[in-house]
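User: what does the whole thing look like in 3D?
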Amino acid sequence: GAGVSQSPRYKVAKRGQDVALRCDPISGHVSLFWYQQALGQGPEFLTYFQNEAQLDKSGLPSDRFFAERPEGSVSTLKIQRTQQEDSAVYLCASSDRLAGNNEQFFGPGTRLTVL
Amino acid sequence: GENVEQHPSTLSVQEGDSAVIKCTYSDSASNYFPWYKQELGKGPQLIIDIRSNVGEKKDQRIAVTLNKTAKHFSLHITETQPEDSAVYFCAASIGIKAAGNKLTFGGGTRVLVKP
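Assistant: Here's the predicted 3D structure for the full assembly of 230 residues, as structure tokens:
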């Protein structure tokens, strides 16, 4: 079956532009996570959804970052007024916690470059 | 919050030799410890995981050990092959149902298997 997909795969933005990154989780997965991975580092947690409810947004670095999952499936991570420090790979992961399985399945990521 | 340290940052081994990667964590409440393999341009892929009620787990050439008292866990790859070359990440999480099992990752180990 299809895994987690993300689009676009690559995004170049000029400083100050707004961007929107899309995540399509595995069908039926209740939990959805966003992580930020800077070059040469491990992923860092940004935010978590259980269905459409955003239960944890403690990792969002500033109020320029906003995520939503209005129908409990597709999620969008939006970054307003992008800065150079926002350059990173943004990873989305989903899991089926109702099955008691902790495994998170990751998408390929969106590489954001802010010039 | 949780902090995960991973060593070494790079590891070069001869094909057929063993590779060992070590991680320590700070939060004694963590109870789930996955290991991910990340190839260039791809998202992390789970290769093995262990829960806090188990001391050791093995899957073919891969094994993971957990020492809860010392708060460290290790990944062992035996009979390494060139296709094992990748970046490996350890992670830890606290499985709180209401908050989801967000992962805290180590900094990664770049493994190079020389033919």
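In plain terms: Residues 4 and 30 of chain A are 13 Å apart (CA to CA). Chain A touches chain B through 27 residues (CB under 8 Å).
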